[in-house]
């Protein structure tokens, strides 16, 4: 299909986000996401499995439209086998870092990432600000992560629905930085840290400007799924993690770019707006926020 590309997802550099595109012969191109600029595409064909670990899906399986991951069951299993998150590589020799990530008032998580990735993992998750807590071997970082989650009462994940609801009403950098610094002080003051994990001094990194969050208006809805021949187009207001906040036809809609993976995507007609299903943005309940 001439002129049809597949999404390779959002890639976050230190200077901002970009979209990766994969052609029919495996060639890759990148397009920078500019706030105030336009994004648009038309959905072509069926959504098919993207494979695992750089390998194509042997069966070229058709996968669900509304899932954030475009993998069939077998490829998902193979991808998980080598996942650090699933402890699939406990003997990984790399240095890991434990971090404290802030997404909104009371929305804080503890996690780990390979030191060589620097802050990429935090940008990919849409962390509005963060600080490192410690560094050391993988399993020591994992034990510290579990200790801090229990002692501080924070989770290991925050849902994207929770992140989206609060993005347009965040306090300023000073207030959110204070919350991170207070939790960091509590964390490093705890006993029971693994001996091989080195504490790291608090230095808050704020992504508010990088994500384009200043002056962001609340979203009206979220793209539920892509469909064949559907169109997505709009002006980019902000980007955080995989989410693009698009202004289109007088409303703001969030597009989770993970929904684009596995689809063929072609050029959108001028002024096409959004013709794919959109659902309301649902505020999380109190139980979600606490647990």
List keywords for this structure.
ten-stranded mixed beta sheet; alpha+beta; DUF2797; DUF2797 domain-containing protein; 291 residues
Q: Secondary structure elements and their pairing?
A:
Elements: E1 5-13, E2 16-22, E3 28-32, E4 38-44, H1 73-81, E5 96-104, E6 107-114, H2 120-125, E7 129-136, H3 138-152, H4 160-166, H5 173-188, E8 198-199, E9 205-206, H6 208-211, E10 221-223, E11 231-240, E12 243-248, E13 251-256, E14 264-266, E15 278-280, H7 286-290
Parallel strand pairs: 10-13
Antiparallel strand pairs: 1-2, 1-14, 2-3, 4-11, 4-14, 5-6, 5-7, 7-8, 7-9, 10-15, 11-12, 12-13
What does this structure look like?
This is DUF2797 domain-containing protein. Pfam families: DUF2797. With 291 residues, this protein is α+β, with helices and mostly antiparallel strands. The chain has helices at 73-81, 120-125, 138-152, 160-166, 173-188, 208-211, 286-290; strands spanning 5-13, 16-22, 28-32, 38-44, 96-104, 107-114, 129-136, 198-199, 205-206, 221-223, 231-240, 243-248, 251-256, 264-266, 278-280. The strands form 2 sheets. Strands 3-2-1-14-4-11-12-13-10-15 form a 10-stranded mixed sheet. Strands 5, 6, 7, 8 and 9 form a 5-stranded antiparallel sheet that branches. The model is unreliable at 286-291 (pLDDT under 50).
């Amino acid at each position: 299909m001439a002129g049809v590309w597949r999404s390779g997802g959002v890639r976050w550099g230190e200077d901002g986000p970009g979209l990766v595109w994969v052609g029919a012969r495996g060639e890759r191109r990148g397009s920078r996401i500019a706030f105030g600029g336009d994004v648009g595409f038309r959905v072509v064909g069926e959504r098919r499995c993207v494979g695992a670990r750089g390998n194509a899906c042997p069966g070229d399986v058709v996968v669900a439209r509304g899932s954030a991951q475009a993998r069939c069951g077998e490829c998902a299993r193979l991808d998980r086998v080598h996942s650090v998150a699933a402890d699939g590589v406990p003997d990984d020799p790399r240095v890991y870092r434990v971090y404290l990530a802030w997404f909104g008032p009371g929305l804080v998580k503890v996690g780990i990432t390979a030191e060589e990735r620097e802050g990429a993992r935090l940008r990919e998750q849409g962390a509005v600000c963060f600080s490192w807590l410690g560094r050391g071997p993988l399993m020591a970082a994992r034990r510290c992560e579990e200790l801090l989650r229990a002692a501080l009462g924070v989770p290991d994940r925050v849902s994207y629905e929770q992140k989206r609801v609060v993005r347009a009403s965040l306090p300023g950098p000073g207030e959110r930085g204070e919350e991170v610094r207070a939790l960091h002080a509590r964390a490093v003051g705890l006993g029971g840290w693994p001996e091989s994990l080195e504490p790291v001094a608090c230095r808050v990194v704020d992504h508010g400007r990088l994500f384009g969050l200043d002056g962001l208006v609340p979203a009206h809805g979220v793209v539920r799924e892509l469909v064949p021949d559907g169109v997505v187009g709009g002006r980019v207001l902000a980007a955080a993690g995989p989410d693009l906040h698009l202004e289109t036809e007088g409303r703001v809609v969030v597009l989770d770019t993970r929904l684009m993976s596995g689809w063929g995507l072609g050029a959108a007609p001028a002024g096409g707006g959004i013709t794919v299903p959109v659902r309301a943005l649902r505020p999380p309940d109190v139980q979600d926020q606490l647990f």
